[in-house]
Structures
1.
Amino acid sequence: MPRKTMIEAIRDAMDVSMGKDDNVVVFGEDVGYFGGVFRCTQGLQQKYGVTRCFDAPISELGIVGAAIGMAAYGLRPCVEVQFADYVYPAYDQIVSEAARIRYRSNGEFTCPMVIRMPTGGGIFGGQTHSQSPEALFTHVSGLKVVVPSNPHDAKGLLIASIEDPDPVIFLEPKRLYNGPFDGHHDRPVTPWSKHPLGEVPDGHYSTPLGKAVIRRQGADVTILAYGTMVYVAEAAAEETGIDAEIIDLRTLLPLDLDAIVASVKKTGRCVVVHEATLTSGFGAELAALVQQHCFYELEAPIARVTGWDTPYPHAQEWDYFPGPARVGQALRETMEA
Amino acid sequence: MPRKTMIEAIRDAMDVSMGKDDNVVVFGEDVGYFGGVFRCTQGLQQKYGVTRCFDAPISELGIVGAAIGMAAYGLRPCVEVQFADYVYPAYDQIVSEAARIRYRSNGEFTCPMVIRMPTGGGIFGGQTHSQSPEALFTHVSGLKVVVPSNPHDAKGLLIASIEDPDPVIFLEPKRLYNGPFDGHHDRPVTPWSKHPLGEVPDGHYSTPLGKAVIRRQGADVTILAYGTMVYVAEAAAEETGIDAEIIDLRTLLPLDLDAIVASVKKTGRCVVVHEATLTSGFGAELAALVQQHCFYELEAPIARVTGWDTPYPHAQEWDYFPGPARVGQALRETMEA
Amino acid sequence: MPQKNMLSLHVPEPEVRPGGTPDFSNVPIPKAGSVPRPEVNVDPRAIRDLAYSIIRVLNREGEAVGPWAGTLTDEELLEGLRHMMTLRAFDARMQMAQRQGKTSFYMQHMGEEAVSCAFRKALLPGDMNFPTYRQAGLLIAGGYPMVEMMNQIYSNERDPLKGRQLPVMYASKEHGFFSISGNLTTQYIQAVGWAMASAIRNDTKIAVGWVGDGATAESDFHAALVFASTYKAPVVLNIVNNQWAISTFQGIARGGSGTFAARGLGFGIPALRVDGNDYLAVHAVAKWATERARRNLGPTLIEHVTYRVGAHSTSDDPSAYRPKEESAAWPLGDPVLRLKNHLIVRGLWSEERHKQAEAEILDTVIAAQKEAESHGTLHAGGKPSARDMFEGVYAEMPPHLRRQRQQAGV
Amino acid sequence: MPQKNMLSLHVPEPEVRPGGTPDFSNVPIPKAGSVPRPEVNVDPRAIRDLAYSIIRVLNREGEAVGPWAGTLTDEELLEGLRHMMTLRAFDARMQMAQRQGKTSFYMQHMGEEAVSCAFRKALLPGDMNFPTYRQAGLLIAGGYPMVEMMNQIYSNERDPLKGRQLPVMYASKEHGFFSISGNLTTQYIQAVGWAMASAIRNDTKIAVGWVGDGATAESDFHAALVFASTYKAPVVLNIVNNQWAISTFQGIARGGSGTFAARGLGFGIPALRVDGNDYLAVHAVAKWATERARRNLGPTLIEHVTYRVGAHSTSDDPSAYRPKEESAAWPLGDPVLRLKNHLIVRGLWSEERHKQAEAEILDTVIAAQKEAESHGTLHAGGKPSARDMFEGVYAEMPPHLRRQRQQAGV
Ligand SMILES: Cc1ncc(C[n+]2csc(CCOP(=O)(O)OP(=O)(O)O)c2C)c(N)n1
Ligand SMILES: Cc1ncc(C[n+]2csc(CCOP(=O)(O)OP(=O)(O)O)c2C)c(N)n1
Ligand SMILES: [Mg+2]
Ligand SMILES: [Mg+2]
């Protein structure tokens, strides 16, 4: 099967979707002629013409607002916000509009659209190219929130998102674009071409939203992770020798609670990891749900390993990033608790 | 001591602050000549002149962005967003700017400002006059988030917020403006003039940010609440006869974790209540913290009683609102667990 | 000691406040018929003046004059009068219903009826409006059943929106009426996006955006002009300048020496100002702008100059911030009276027929109201279920909402 | 079969793409000296034309001509040349340092040096800029130590921002340089707010906002114009139109037949376009606008017409989206060369002195660089501590951050 980088897989998902449905349009800042600053849309304008894939003015509000209007018309826009850190100007359109149009109009109008954005740090991008704002979307009823961790899923989940009848926030961990990254920033990264999850089937397939997947079977503790942190968790399990079960959530909203509960009931312990800041991060929701549903099985407090509650710093990037050492430490503490 | 409504107390706080410090300015939509749609700024323009209290164009982005510039200059703006539901156009300015200016400039510039906004439902305001977006701010490092539950605190906390060197999100539960509301919408509301917490000292005093207060001592279960839900919790404790300890958090960020942990360690049980939607609401953070810090003392899962994960509906307002019946039910279940 | 060269802040104030005598003599009102009518494919640069004038058709004598006259037949004019009278009667009844506690909230159109009623007649089936809460004339003049509107206002068991929305936040795809948002101006850029979609699909349908004078200050307004101008979207962008935004007068949003229409000029968008109380002028300008859009010539910005005679909403009392007599002093008159007079001058109408029509319309409105009330009002009778509250957040209900619905026992 | 009257979407495209021959012959360039200079208290309505022209002082012969000439002394001109040369040398060294892995990122000014260097000279101590990442000339021309800039770029142990910020995101209160945000345009409305504050306090200081052509599409741009115009804030709002926004040409943000400057007209804000590659013209216009602000006459919008010769940043490669030769074809020339020629024509400068100055400046920059590097670079030598990461989120560290810092063991 062909191996692709995450960028190629994402591009492929849009390509397949645009080929299949004339209603799929792609636009955003620098996505047209240039093909996006991460090249995710490269070649799409050439293939589908300037009215199907085009450059947008630098207005995230405008991009999302226009996409909402297009979705109301009947198109299926898949737009790019250049970095997740720049989504806030569009926040009102997402929260007050996209998420609520179906509900408030009782289905007279709907909003099938995808907002793609690169997320997460690890590229020395400083406070404005590193954020992980997923929790600001998981609190919003009416949205779906997806975070793929590998090329195979990225393609399948993006196709599913484009075909979904409701608005989807699609967060792409940019540190994974070219290869899985386990947090060991001082070691060379394996490219996707050497990783089994870099195998991406040609053509159309879709990976259902709302379904988690177990990346590593384990008996002692459950790690809940998504995006980049899946690999960090793997490294931590490896390095500590703790037999952790690692769940890649893939979709945060709606959440695959059953998979989580089944695993934690089995292991009796749970560590939640994400790169976003701690307070009111999505880990809080996970911890709240796990303690609620697995209270009697839990043998230790649920630990959260996350970015610190500061803006994402530039020079101290690797002090900030919740790498395998910190996850490992939490695993050990959880096992000993 | 004089009794005031929450509106009068809030107005008094601004009045005292403007009188004490020329740098305090107040503006927002309809806040100048008219005195605000809830009349919180009534009379301030007359007293301090049009350049200290004035009407703003309908641009929440502009109001907050201009206030940030003013704060950088050295003023202490206290601005009003007409309803918390309308804060999203200003979200980028709050998250990317106000919250990070001190950090990113290493203190060269700071942002002492207050953003006041009426929050919460219970007035048949539908989806756009009822929201409780506190969790969208508690996730943001650099912000403080305050929710007063009574006139006495409202004045003291607002003065403390205006005097705080950092940006404060000040959420005013609008259902409490004229009297405590326990969720029994079919019963007459007691006015503040009949409630001891309606006693508001004249002149300057401040209530420290980051300090919770116990509203009801109890032995069996801890209820964590803020704003309107404090009274709902009181009613639920009363009606179920369960000896609940009710903590009014007052400040959500920074949080008075010590007070929470001390209480839950004592009672061994915890119910978290808020009006905002469940998923990724602030209750998630509370539950995550409580299970982490009180794991070995907890005798039952922490329950969350919140608004449902839907937009705030108009006609079904009282089906949506987490009233005393639902809180009571959670208390009973938590006691029986 | 005041510093030399010291700065000071300018805070715009309306000329008159309660207690004062309203005076609009400084508002320049061009004579009816005096503004030229360019071809729709005119170079926008050639008509910048239109952003600073006011297109008017009906003169003081009630005659239709000038190059913008003549877009409507006699029947259409008579129908237009009936629409405006219906909207006014509808407003009066619903305003009263709110006072009687039958619903929580209402917003009326008094003085602004011509804007949405006349504009609607320039639209074709399939076109889409992105309205604010003050364009119910689009529904009335488009033949949407009044009883449906009332069901929505009452949040009753027949409410097409299942009780989920605040009163007057109608939505009807069939009637080209996009779901109203409570958040101001968000719909403006959506209208542009809808129009772009129509152009992308090589369709023939156009979009129409609506915004109030005060709400032009919001960010979405800028985004709409940027996108409309860049992609030459087939959209008409309307600004209803009714002089007030709740308690703030239009000077707070307008500032400087500009007009709201003039905001289009920097984008190369043709911008017109029209007498919003003149049914014929609104219709003529709407025709012009919609034709531009249909011919793929791009967007048009229209400022409708009108006056909000009533309170902002049932939650508002304007006597706190403007003189009671201000609406009477408003120089552009009342849209219903002006069209009525025109029809009388034309020999198509009479005082008597007007009274009769008023009575008939009132009957129709009351009949609709009776029917709606038979399905319930906000606090009495049939109502949407708590179950409806959980539906429609997503196309398919996800597990967490199913759990919550179960927990709610519905 | 294509439908009759079917719509289609217009997507603006630059005239030339890689492989094509650059051609700016359709860009109208008025003759130097041809645009009149109005009084600063002119009625904005009288000078709308200035939003569609280009104010220029230096002609092809290198002479300073017309009513906007004469705002600078000989010494000031020589100093201006040195500032621009310094900025260019600084850029070259830092660009190289990034290539050498000494930092993560850099953004240069090539071709745009006149804009920030000349503007800075119209400002007084206490005035405040709200810059973007492409106005380091404000610091260079304002005498901010280069070594401090480099410490910031290297995130080293002397970094005034403690390693927290991306390179070039300087901040200096003393030097009137507000903390640069990575988020585009947010600073524009903040500049207006700062100016309003100065006016509220009856101060004499003014504010200056900066934005790129592409970033004018952001919402904050609109908010800034609305607030500036409503409150007549003492602010100068600069648009640096360098033709490109990463890979998109200015037509994507500009659209229609307008200019960026013309966006001010709808707000009644005087709007000027200036030759941004002409040090003298930029200074003259800056003088005019700052004087307006100081005299409490309100805001001015200035579009600086220039060209981004280099890549957007060290992460960008413009050969993917525009012809390599485009910058050479740009009709307004190079700002350093133009000022150099002017000084030579004036007899104040020579090729020889220029070479000498170049060498001297390079020495100074290298010396600063050596000093900065002695305090570390991003991946080597001294660096800010992990402890610094936890400081400064709030004035006082709250308990949860203290706990986290402890957990981090720092
Ligand atoms: C984003 C947002 N901010 C504030 C409000 C509150 N609000 C509702 S209507 C209104 C005034 C609007 O005035 P205008 O745009 O002139 O429209 P009009 O009511 O006059 O038709 C305000 C401030 C809102 N609904 N949404
Ligand atoms: C809110 C936001 N959206 C997108 C970006 C990404 N971005 C950085 S610079 C840039 C182009 C800006 O172009 P322009 O305003 O013309 O300034 P120039 O770089 O040409 O000086 C973009 C899109 C950003 N920094 N912030
Ligand atoms: Mg209005
Ligand atoms: Mg540019």
2.
Amino acid sequence: MLNVAVIGVGMTKFGRHENKTIRELWVEAAIKAIEDAKISLKDIQAAFIGCFSSEWWEHQGHLGSICADWLSICPTSAVRVENACASSGAALRCGVLAIASGLYDIVLVGGVEKMYSGPRKLSDTAYATEGLALASDEAYEQAQGLTFPGLYALMATAHMHKYGTKKEHLSKIAVKNHKNAAKNPLAHFQKEITLEEAMNARMIAYPLNLYDCCPFSDGASAAILCKADLARRFTDTIIHIIASTQASDTIALHNRESYVSLRSARVAAQEAYKMAKIESKDIDIAEVHDCFTIAELIAYEDLGFCKPGEGGKLIDEGETEIGGRIPVNTDGGLKAKGHPVGATGVAMIYEIVKQLRGEAINQVKAEIGLAHNVGGSGGTCTIHILKRVS
Amino acid sequence: MLNVAVIGVGMTKFGRHENKTIRELWVEAAIKAIEDAKISLKDIQAAFIGCFSSEWWEHQGHLGSICADWLSICPTSAVRVENACASSGAALRCGVLAIASGLYDIVLVGGVEKMYSGPRKLSDTAYATEGLALASDEAYEQAQGLTFPGLYALMATAHMHKYGTKKEHLSKIAVKNHKNAAKNPLAHFQKEITLEEAMNARMIAYPLNLYDCCPFSDGASAAILCKADLARRFTDTIIHIIASTQASDTIALHNRESYVSLRSARVAAQEAYKMAKIESKDIDIAEVHDCFTIAELIAYEDLGFCKPGEGGKLIDEGETEIGGRIPVNTDGGLKAKGHPVGATGVAMIYEIVKQLRGEAINQVKAEIGLAHNVGGSGGTCTIHILKRVS
Amino acid sequence: MQERDASIQSFYEFIKEGKLMGTKCLKCGYINLPPRPICQACGSKDWEWFQFSGKGKLETYTIIHVPPAKFKDLAPYIVGIVKLIEGSSITAIIKSKLDEVKIGLDLIVDYMEYKGEKLLCFKVEESQS
Amino acid sequence: MQERDASIQSFYEFIKEGKLMGTKCLKCGYINLPPRPICQACGSKDWEWFQFSGKGKLETYTIIHVPPAKFKDLAPYIVGIVKLIEGSSITAIIKSKLDEVKIGLDLIVDYMEYKGEKLLCFKVEESQS
Ligand SMILES: [Zn+2]
Ligand SMILES: [Zn+2]
């Protein structure tokens, strides 16, 4: 028993924030979470903030200090956590450990990233592409001309070859996630796309085209964790974290046994189900890491929502759509909600909490939700399972 | 009671490693710690690695994954922690929380940095200087032409003005630390310097000259933490972590009440003494964060080794030398042992553990040791107190 | 002037207009410089713009001999923290002869065109020299 | 060849000499490619250099249409993972016509001079085309 509850969540709009810096986005999300939890700044005893590469995009390191500073919570300790695209999943996990340690009752977690636009450094697509590649192996992947979309393209080609997965399956995931984002005011894109558009977009890294790739986004997310015993002081709808796990894998794809599944995700999921004492069929709703459409399809299989190789079938049957057996990425996912790398893991928690509370935009019936946050091409995966208790 | 013991420590030589990358330095330090603890790779249940800016210096992010990968401990979870120059102090603290949470029995912590030389990216002094500045406020310090030595120079000028501290006091700290490093085979510099040399070196940021500044170093450090109950399985000389604290401050100096003391250090130290149920006078030996000579002098005051303003006097009286009342930086400190930013916090633990075990190069009589690890210009400070128990 | 948010961008827009601006907390009256969305003293989110007179004293300083690449042409130059008469402090380049700079120097805000940007700096008050 | 350590630098020095080298674990026999100081299979630190024949098959591939700045001149180009006949795999640029690349293609190691560096790559085996 972790004895940890989530009593508040907040996030900025994901997208382009031309006028805001990292610290300003962070403050916006953190204040929303604090207000949602109905606590004050003084109640925060520690903070863990995920950020992938503020050095690269804004020339700003020492993120813990700057995030504590701009939120006016000094001298409260503030740690910055980096696990590539799973940075805030890992930060959340550090927050869980901090509360489980008994040293803290209330902890602020979250994440932030400025990837593209901004008043301090103006990035372009080439620079942002190179920045994302920092999550892959510099010596043996970046050096060989591989890009970040290229990594997932290697998985897609292998999956198609092994299991007969079609490009159409991938495009259907993009269509689903754009549809879910269409009503989400915090999403980067609020427009539906057709299967034809998704199939015929400009190629980025074959077989992945533009609509298979998530956008470069700016944004931040935050959540307030509380010792579960104390949660009832703050809210009546108690959401517990019943599992929090993390696993690693080789950074380079070529050193793995399989290119059609992420071992880090399988291990973290197995440990999470064990910790929560549930099975994959008990999950009512999931946020999965769809940085590329193929990543969502592989997640279905790694999380046990279907058998290995049957991700395409699951999509064809509509089971991961709203109204299906296991709705996935009801907020639009990374694909359409956006993917400010460091903010993504806790933004997933935002959606799960909203769903479990019955406050979501695309509300489904759910008591147990899972968040699957992948770093890089699977070198890291964190899994969190949340449950509404009454 | 934290119930955490340190059962193994390891570090690389600090200095220039022209032929090694971050992951290779990390593996070298981690293996030494593992062998020191007499455990096997399989015993490690989680890892926390501090690194300041591998993105900047080696174009490599996702450090957790690459460090787990190259050490062949996948799928064990591995988190990268960044708190500027306190990155591995913060990583150590996450490891302490992880064990205190009850979820883990044995955890690997450490840190690594490649700041200057290397086969993958060849940096120069200007690039390294700009890299260090990432720890300061991009918008309001970097943008005003301030450098990292400049930040501590601002503190030095203020301290001299307020308390009458002399340049000679600072130079004496450099002389002491070079003397301590002279016999340390792992130190960046193994040569003593004279007070005249220290006083008359090339100016970097007035009033700090070259010998007031630590070098740009490459290196790594690691330690094995273990649930204290289990420590006796591995060793007879049990070293407990009896306090682990962290505090933050504004990233920019100009938003602080004082420029002659670090609030983060004072708060973390007060909390640490309280957690350990000791007073500052009970500390037998200390590793303090002397990225610049003035930082060590201020640390004496912040840690309560002397009254505010009397750091210069403490130096004059030789109390922090080997043989003095409270020997500080017996390994040579950042100044002469070197300062591979992310590795520094756990390298301090290396020296404290060696001293408490009676295995140090410059052995002193000590039962309780303190490590003071500062991020940036004091935006972060972690304090760890270790005690030999019998 | 409330239409601009309490952001870094707003601060530098004001600098371009020759104004040194902070935010005054509507709850506790603390003047935040640089401007902040959350009061450093009390955590309040309510603020209004506050324009500084630009007068102040040098609290501490350094002389940068090894500069970042961008400031290479200026070295050696003085960077200091200036305490404004309104009570807030800020870091900036100080225009002074290197051998005349000292803590307590009376300063007034100034601006410098440098590499296409308008840089905040302070100069020694006329009356003094 | 033991004098070189099992490092990234050694790997690229061998590439310059036209050799594709990994490390063979002296404990469990696993062949680590790229070379590693710690065996990926068993954690042993004992190893010896192992030279690959350079022959292998394409395990998976992508065609990079949006390249990193450094590889701009080559785009679109194929990057694949090649499984060598000795059992290890490695990522490299694949020299093939874009419309002829497919999983299972027989490949042989090759090298490309590019921007002053010698790049590892693989080409289609002659006998096949
Ligand atoms: Zn106020
Ligand atoms: Zn082996």
